[in-house]
């Protein structure tokens, strides 16, 4: 098979979600995810537990994805799998299985860069979304990454700004923990923020001159503010929870928006996309959508393609398949895979 009829099996296991998707042409026909709940009681992902859970989940999730797609494993044209970046143990489980499966069914293997896959998720054919035209800027924001990527082509991307310390997703989760929200706290903070006053509390903003980000100072500012205001009022957090959530969210989104607009002006590109788990944030989506009144073209993925998922891996694999770019059985997982 070739062209629009190409069928790619995508496997994603870079962190704590085991995901498998089937892409036919540019359409996703199944996208299954096994989410690991075990990490909640530890307040973060435990790498050893994550890799064990991937081992338990990968075969059932592949079976489920194929069943939903109505396909047999031999109907697949190629297997695309995340090679990195991510947690070493988690990556090894997915990639090792993909390599063995590719050998067993005699189909080509495609290794995928996790962050590039987030960007290319925008090219999944969808009735609600128009795919971006090149060049465009993509703000990739997750628990481990915060980057601005200049996307000139599917195989020509350049990181023009990145965080010098913590990622935006980590800032959300850590701030949520400070006000008593269980891990992963970012989504719950976003939900509570809808009810609060975003201008109730102000926090220190970083002053980074180029297109890079910094969130460590903001986290410290939030910590000190909560500590100081709680001294005279032990119920301060409880009484101000939704306003704290709204103010924290506004501060983080302000930083992200300032940088993506700066990048747009510097590069003279008014096409902007977002990707990664934090792209599910309601306030970030609203603020970006508002740019359309200023002549911007904004691309926002469906919620299911924001967090780690195999649909984006399969889509990235499709681009490589069409370009005849395949991986050898000698490749190894790389937790710090470069762009």
Annotation keywords:
5-stranded mixed beta sheet; single chain; 40% helix; 2 domains; alpha/beta; Nucleotidyltransferase, domain 5
Short synopsis of the structure:
The protein is of the alpha/beta class and 339 residues long.
Structural class: alpha/beta
**Which series of helices and strands comes N to C?**
EEEHEHEHEEEHHHHEHEH
Q: Would you give the CATH topology of the largest domain?
A: Nucleotidyltransferase, domain 5
CATH class of the largest domain: Alpha Beta
Q: Categorize the overall geometry.
A: globular
Mean pLDDT: 93
Low-pLDDT stretches: none
CATH architecture identity of the largest domain: 2-Layer Sandwich
Calculate Rg over CA atoms.
20 Å
Question: Helix segment count?
Answer: 9
Helix content bin: 40-55%
Number of strands: 10
Number of domains: 2
Main sheet properties: 5 strands, mixed
CATH superfamily of the largest domain: ATPase, nucleotide binding domain
Beta-strand fraction estimate: 15-25%
The strands making up the biggest β-sheet line up spatially as 3-2-1-4-5
The CA-CA distance between the termini, in Å, is 30 Å
Could you characterize the architecture of this molecule?
This protein has 9 helices and 10 strands. The protein is an alpha/beta fold and 339 residues long. It folds into 2 domains: 140 residues, Nucleotidyltransferase, domain 5, CATH 3.30.420; 165 residues, Nucleotidyltransferase, domain 5. A 5-stranded mixed sheet has the order 3-2-1-4-5, with helices on both faces. The longest helix is centred in the C-terminal third of the chain and has 32 residues.
